[in-house]
Amino acid sequence: MPQPLSADIDDPSAAPNSWERYLAGFLLFAYASGALAHTLPAVLPVTRYTTDGLLLVINGLLLYSLYRRNDDARLWWWLVVAYCFTFTAEAVGVATGAVFGEYAYGPTMWWQWLGVPFVIALNWCVLTLATNDLAERVVGRRPWAVAALASVLIALYDVAIEPVAITLDYWQWGGGEIPLQNYVVWALVAFVISVPLQLLGIRYRSPLLLVYLLAQLFFFAVLNIAL
After folding, report:
1. Does 1 score more than 50 pLDDT?
2. What's the rounded Cα separation, in Å, for the pair 70 and 68?
3. pLDDT digit string, tens, across residues 83-120
4. Is the whole-model pTM more than 0.85?
5. Which helix (H) or strand (E) holds 173?
6. Is the pLDDT of residue 3 over 50?
7. Which 3 state secondary structure label does DSSP give 113?
8. How would you class 140 by CB atoms within 10 Å of its CB: exposed for 0-12, middle for 13-18, buried for 19 or more?
């Protein structure tokens, strides 16, 4: 079983090890180069259709790094339950329009089932880990407060994601309008999967989560301006 690679696995400010430094560099490069590639018409047709694979690699490496640092197998159980819950919410939402509003995923994200890309629920779960990490930095180890703040942060994060996702045809909204319901329900979904993470004391924190959150936010901020 992998052993924790930091002096204090409960301290997210503990110095990153060599693996984490390399991965932090990769995250920064991936999102910075991705933002640039999406602004170049010559490569945009290719870049748009590599989203699934890149997100899978990035999230997979990050989750592996979190496990190496924290050595808590409960993280995988949380991920399975959180993924199934999030994917189910998406599938019901796409099928009925009653959860987030009327929307449908486009062909840009091609590996789908029930009209939902497999990687999208994984990305939301990892973003939830990242917003929980940021929330805990702000309010300390107060489980309910962390879960509540993390849910607000992820809804605000979605505000930056939506215009870019629509432009790149990740998904489209019925009538062309993003309903307020979408942000409220995403906050609720994030809260529901954050609560067990916090109450069970699952170890997940890492300085990489903040790098990941800010690098992805930079990607969407640039494309909000450039596209």
Report:
1. no
2. 6
3. 999 999 999 999 998 999 999 998 877 788 999 999 99
4. yes
5. strand 171-173
6. no
7. strand
8. exposed
Give the pairing type, strands 116-117 and 171-173.
unpaired
**Three-state DSSP class for residue 184:** helix
Q: Using an 8 Å Cβ cutoff, are 204 and 133 in contact? A: yes
What is the pLDDT confidence band of residue 53, given thresholds at 50, 70 and 90? confident
Give the separation between CA 84 and CA 34, rounded to whole angstroms: 28
d(C-alpha 227, C-alpha 221), whole Å: 10
Instruction: Find, among 84, 74, 202, 213, the residue nearest to 138 by Cα.
Output: 213
Contacts of 218 (CB under 8 A, 6+ apart): 31, 32, 35
Span 135-154, pLDDT tens digits: 999 999 999 999 999 999 99
Helix axes of 51-70 and 207-226: crossing angle, nearest 10 degrees = 160
Residues 6+ apart with CB under 8 A from 175: 102
What is d(CA 59, CA 181) in angstroms, rounded to the nearest whole number? 27
Distance (Å, whole) CA 158 – CA 181? 12
